[in-house]
Amino acid sequence: MRLDGGAAQPLVEVLTAGSGRGHVSARFSETTIGRRFRFAGSSSTGSPSTGGSSTGSGDRGGQLRIRLRDGESGLAAEVVLTGGTQVRTTITNEGPEPVLLLGVTTCAVGLGPVDDLDLVSGDGEWLGEGRWTRRPLREHAPDLNLRIHGQDGRGRYAVTSTGTWSTGARQPTGVLVDRVTGTAVAWQVEHNGPWRWETGERLDGGYLALAGPTDIDHQWQRLLGPGESFTTVPASVAVGDGLHGAVAALTAHRRGLLRPHPDRAALPVVFNDYMNTLMGDPTTAKLLPLIDAAAGAGAEVFCVDAGWYDNDTTWWDSVGEWQPSAGRFPRGLIEVVDRIRSHGMIPGLWLEPEVIGVRSPMADKLPAEAFLQRGGIRLVEHGRYHLDLRHPAAVAHLDEVVDRLVEQFGVGYFKLDYNIDPGAGTDRDAPAAGAGLLDHNRAHLEWLDRILDRHPGLTLENCASGGMRADYAMLSRMQVQSTSDQQDFRRYPPIAVAAPLAILPEQAASWAYPQPEMSDEQIAYTMCTGMLGRLYLSGRLDAMSDRQRELVREGVAAFRSIRADLAATVPVWPLGLPGWDDPWLSLGLHHHDTTYLGIWRRAGAGTALTLDLRHLRGHPVTVEVLYPRRLRAWAYRWESATGSLTVTTADTDPHAARILRIRPSR
Hints:
The chain is an alpha+beta fold and 666 residues long. It starts with 13 loop residues before the first strand and ends with a strand.
């Protein structure tokens, strides 16, 4: 596979109403303007990298600027490559007449022959995020013998996301792996709204095109007057040796995107009262013993989740004012916050800032223009209106809420949830619904930046019904990402194991929710689910036995002993990418000479398996059980010559898991 000038795929494709495509299809390849673009110069600053180190340093490197021009339409393109990985393209109308844009790729690249390529792509939905598959690209791009026809093909494998759940159905990340050379290219579209990526076969080889919203997919258009410019959403492309190498390069790039924040060094353990615990019904009486138990387990943040702002449990369509309930907290929410703080924990609160319930007093206090609209009518989804963050009244309301809660209660952690999707967008003050949505998406990112400018120590968790908006427009700014709302501890591990393909391990918060009715092996199983990422604790710890609480404390202590390494690890999958129903699952996080290895045995699994740890091949190693240490031991046999670890269990519980640390023998 090659990413070079060997294929004639234009670097930028531009679809306009007045020019269209040069070859009829629904592709973002071979647009008329893309064909006519000619090189107009380049410049560079700094020292662009070629994909990043395996650990990431936060240094995004220099910039390369490539200029293209179409003399007929007057459109000019400037492609900016930052750090050798991230791309943005700015289209400027240098001609005398307006041009109606219908789609602009952030970038497009030629791939060479496709016969030996595998495509790795991800599906997801609520409760089932990050389900990845690897298939030959030929399954999506059949061999049509294009050469005998002398024309490019018309088909393509296009993956799109609509609305604002940017990862709600498909992943903006993908990988192409050359089975023969081993070279792999990984990409991600970094946008908190609609996007599109596509791949397929041209007459001269394969291609990959990455884009934000388009007319055909997302009702987007932009009239570009003379002298005006439009900049695409960013996307990134990273190259490495095989799947693991390309993901390592993309992992390094993601670390370089992150906003500086004290959370990156601390990675505190968060306890949240929601999942399988209070479930949106917090009160002082329920919270105080839970706070004490969470502190005893070693939690460092305690987040009060949904329900704290309403007197009953029918709050779904009345949210929006974000004032503490007097009924739930007779002596005020401050009593709960003071108890959290008395244990040395940081107090946190759940917010869903972008919505206003249809029964909320704020629905009438804010002007109609502060909400997303279609045809002059406020959009309603599941009993909520959606704020339009282009409007100053919407922004002022949210700023007041955040600043008040930080100043009044000393909140240091917000779980920012997002449980509706407004669809195509808003046509208020916009040429099309998709154009209004893009401007709203960008205004949302600016709002997040300003929050953190005002409160630089405030930690923000990104949640959207779990992992429905886990893109790197959001995650470059926010410190923690909820990976799912999955309440079945048996079904959560494949989500957690797959997460590092799309989310940095130190940001990927997978729930560990041990319960009093669980066996010891089941408690360890759910604890392990959260430990090779950002440990996100819940469960009725206050109702557990001393023995059970000690098992939880042991897991928290084990996580705290390794968390300093997490922000430098790269993922490996010793059993391949996880299948939803796989009986065995495994995730490795590799850092220098140390590999942290998670193994989950599920219903239907045998008592033994062999894991591929070829990155350790040829070295004698020591296998250490990090967690759980006091449950029944498993047996481990290392084969240095092949880099394989055979694990044998003798447990009768169908659900069991272990976290190992593997290092060279001293």
